[in-house]
Amino acid sequence: MITSRRGFLRLLGAGTTAGIAMPWPIMAASRAIAFEPPAQDDGFIRLNNNENAYGPSPKVEEVIRSSSAGANRYPFREYRWLREKIAGVNHVKPEQVLLGCGSTEILRMAAFAFLGRGKQLIQASPTFEAIEHYARSAESEVVSVRLTPAFAHDLDGMLAHASASNTLVYICNPNNPTASLTPRKDIESFIRKLPGSTFVIIDEAYHHYAGQSGMYASFIDRPLDDERVIVTRTFSKVYGLAGLRLGYAVASPKVILQMQKFATEASINAIVTQAAAAALDDVDATADFIQRNTNDRQEFFNQAMARAVKPIDSHANFVMMNTFHPAEEVIEHFRKNNILIGRHFPALDTHVRISLGRPEEMSAFWRAWDTLPYPKHSMQH
Ligand SMILES: Cc1ncc(COP(=O)(O)O)c(C=O)c1O
Known about the structure:
Layout: H1 5-18, H2 24-35, E1 45-47, H3 58-66, H4 80-90, E2 97-100, H5 102-114, E3 120-125, H6 130-137, E4 141-146, H7 155-161, E5 168-172, H8 184-193, E6 199-203, H9 207-210, E7 229-234, E8 247-250, H10 253-260, H11 270-281, H12 283-306, E9 318-322, H13 327-336, E10 339-341, E11 351-355, H14 359-369
The structure holds pyridoxal-5'-phosphate.
The site of pyridoxal-5'-phosphate (PLP) has 13 residues, from helix 5.
């Protein structure tokens, strides 16, 4: 079974590069692996993929059940009505919206539309790795610039690498895995200084958890009127639909058409379109999920503080913290306690990422934390 996103992406990569040259028995075997459903009843507490531990909402669940009757039909559709709905919510034109099988597909489309041999992706380190994987598949160079000591994107450092041939910058805000913000005004002035031919993706997967502040404003809600800016969002987080796969991009109509050429045929399933529409309508549930996350995050920080541990300030539905011990060892300790926490991010070798779960799951997490075989003072700041 493929247990990690990285492993799954590696598998996808292997399939892409080997392509039709692969002898059919191997192809058949890897397809079988790729399509094996994840075991949800294996007893593990899942604090590893930044999902909504509560969702989807009861109304959305009902829509999922009632729309499954059409599952025998291919979804050969453009879903204009859903693009219109998403456009309406975001105050943009339907032509500015592109749907994808998760925002991961949007990132793939962007990589293949704007990258290729002789071009560069500029990204932070550490950050969400999907686009790096696709950039490498497209034979692009990847430049990773370490986050600042405050865990913001080092925009000056990124700018120093940008030239006319550097065509795509990836900014994840709030950033995965650090849950940290890069100030809005800094991103704005960074974009203004970039060469005219450089496109910027702003990944707002965790937008709903960031709140409104002087530090943060979405580039969909407060657009820059700049054709080079592509914003991505997902239904996998606050809406609780990670298993059904839907994400979208908002960009200029011209850029949307450029990316759409690389879409997979019929990749948007008929059930998720109904579920996503219901999730957008269920504004009370969304507000409730945001509030629960705020409470769960606060409780996490209370528990951490009681142990004199200081996590990175979180603006998302997960938390990263320094354990001052090899992350792999800490991850393994939790696995032995039937708890899956985030994967190892080599750029932060002693940090671990914990997705917020339900209260009882978080109690289990802290019980396991308290049995880590390290002297207490060695994990404190
Ligand atoms: C920052 C970020 N972007 C994109 C994604 C991909 O989300 P999805 O493909 O489920 O929409 C994730 C998933 O964890 C993420 O953390």
